[in-house]
Write a structure and sequence with these properties.
Elements: E1 9-13, H1 16-27, E2 35-39, H2 46-58, E3 71-74, E4 86-91, H3 100-104, E5 114-119, E6 132-138, E7 145-152
Parallel strand pairs: 2-5, 2-6, 4-5
Antiparallel strand pairs: 1-7, 3-4, 6-7
């Protein structure tokens, strides 16, 4: 089956539920070793996107924004979702100086054994692998969400 997200993809979703449904469909394409770089203004829906991906792959939603811890790891639960890969969720919002990255050890998240979702990736572009999905989200509050996806092989 061809990867529908391999080419640039652009769509606008009128509701949060439509946006979440898109993120869940997107999640079905992800495999261990994939990285998703999320960008957009505060309130655009980056964490909402992450929650939908975790719910799609793990069947539940234990997510919270890792803004103050920088990194959360979600392991698949026992049962029907137990074969899903782990998901590493990084939030780089508080990174002010890329030199901080060396102290945080965030590069360990990119070991290839998990799916890595990175909010505010543009605060530390040197951390990001070249092979990744870039997901840009525009909108806030109850307004529609415009989403662009580009794949970098």
């Amino acid at each position: 089956m061809p990867d529908t997200f391999a080419a640039p993809f652009h769509a606008t979703f009128p509701t949060e539920s439509a946006f979440g449904a898109f993120a869940q469909r997107f999640a079905a394409r992800l495999r261990a070793g994939d990285t998703v770089a999320l960008s957009g203004p505060l309130g655009a829906g980056k964490t909402t996107f992450v929650r939908a991906v975790v719910r799609a792959l793990h069947g539940d939603d234990p997510t919270s924004s890792p803004t103050f811890t920088f990194w959360h790891r979600y392991l698949p639960p026992a049962g029907p979702f137990s074969q899903a890969p782990a998901i590493d969720h990084l939030d780089l919002y508080r990174i002010e100086d890329p030199a901080e990255l060396a102290e945080l050890g965030l590069e360990d998240a990119f070991s290839g054994d998990s799916i890595v979702l990175v909010e505010w990736w543009n605060r530390a572009p040197q951390l990001m692998p070249g092979r990744r999905y870039d997901v840009a989200i525009q909108g806030a509050g109850s307004s529609p969400r415009a989403v662009s996806v580009e794949y970098h092989p």
